Amino acid sequence: MGVSARITAADVAKVAKLARLDLAPEAIERTTAQLAGMLEHFADIDALDLGAVEPMTQPYPLQNVFREDIVLTGLDREEVLAAAPAAEDGRFRVPPILGLDG
Amino acid sequence: MSEATLTAVEISAGVRSGSLKAADILEQHLDRITAREGEVHAFNLVLADEARAAAAAIDDLVAAGNDPGPLAGVPIALKDNMCTRGVPTTCSSKILDGWKPPYNATVVDRLGAAGAITVGKTNLDEFAMGSSTENSAFGPTRNPLDLTRVPGGSSGGSAAAVAAGFASVSLGSDTGGSIRQPAALCGVVGVKPTYGYVSRYGLVAFASSLDQIGPFTTTVEDSALLLDVIGGHDPMDSTSIPDAHPSLVDAIAQGVEGLRVGRITDLPDGADPDVAERLEAAFDALRAAGATIVDVQVPAFGYGLTAYYLIAPSEASSNLARYDGVRYGLRVDAPDTNAMYGATRAAGFGEEVQRRIMLGTYALSAGYYDAYYGKALKVRRLIADDFDRAYTKADVLLTPTAPTVAFPFGSKTDNPLAMYLCDVYTIPTNLAGHPGMSVPYGTGADGLPVGVQVLAGTLGEPTMFRAAAALERSMSEASAVGRASASEPDDDGVRGRSPRGEGSLS
Hints:
The complex is a heterodimer of chains A (102) and B (506). Chain A is mainly alpha-helical. Helices cover 33% and strands 4% of the residues of chain A.
């Protein structure tokens, strides 16, 4: 598939759901137009022959980065929980995981 | 020279020797903040009381015969995406408004141990996504040299803070040009080191394979000093380079005799004529200083923008998944977690951040991964390989930092792609993981500063700094000649204009 495949409002609505962003219909429409414009520009790389090129995932390759296996002080639990929107009994408090949104 | 124009090197030397008081130096900077912060808005938070206590402690150390360290009494501003324990760190986003990190970024600890005084947290484009600081949830920063214009971005607050004399030096982060471009637009020095040179621990992640912390300063030597303090291995960052770095302060003492300076003959067009003219002057100055100018090609340079705007949003969409209203920051209450995530993130993220999350999620989604993200990673390799070939012929490369001088507010906000093009000359360096820095090199249209970008290969910082220092020397020589028949520039605390930004070497 080429990079220039046209993005649709349905694609954008699906992506918004994947990204956990509640976008209003007009935001979906605006985003579709903007992403389409960008993807059109990004089609410039379709001209490149990339068949034999290795993908580059990191600029300074390091392998098997370990530290000494010693006990270090972690973050303070109370301090961490104090920053949470809701906490209870030393844990983060959240609404039900299984609910209305299937 | 008045104390208002002292460099970090001079402040630290004076404070360590007892000839200057850290408290006095700090008050001068706080006075300038009081006078002009209202119109500039460089800061999300000014830490005047904390800074006063820290400065007094430094003076006490000196009085007791102790050495506070290489940044003794140097007032520094930190981009507000660096974690400061117990002090709000917002990333200029509503989603983190009021959040107090439970730990310090490694750079924050190293600065403190070296005697630096943190004066505040600076404004940025939300989550460092932007080139004008107009994307901040707390309002834009204005360019201290012309309040009708942007300071650049995303580290616009850090650049403006140094240009306005609110802090002697500052730190920013650079993912695609976010240190170098605002440095150019505000007339200060800005450095993006080699990927892995400075620890990213405690830097709120935007695009993890591209992000690097670096300094804003008024002189090349101050940037060298800062990097000597904050650089080096950190076990808390698994991408931190394990080897020790040579001192950059030592490196800049060497000249550029025999240095090979590359001109990229296939650089993408787009720089304004005034910017191109300053770049030519920079080549001339290095040639006059004993360097050799050589032609090189980086054919994939022009594809950097596309590769970057597929890779960076992809990484961002993953990194920003953590803002879910559970552990920190904003929560919009909803009956179940999925509804809470969607409502929280829509309310907490600004438009540009949402746009990039969408772009990145799309580029990574099933059916499109190979066509977008996978392909961009291959283009990234082409760019790095092209640079590596160029660096067999040249030790450093010179390009414009940004295509234009500082632009007026609102001129690019309706067209995301036009904004992205501000970083066309800075982005390829991030993709390759190489170092790059912007050096103020005179003025262009409307008397506004122009930056010249010096690039080098992986861990080429010592050579890059030699070239940058030579450029700086050529500017101060030119402005010394210019001043011989003119009066001293007014000290209005705006250092981008005096003396370094006002040379007329053409």
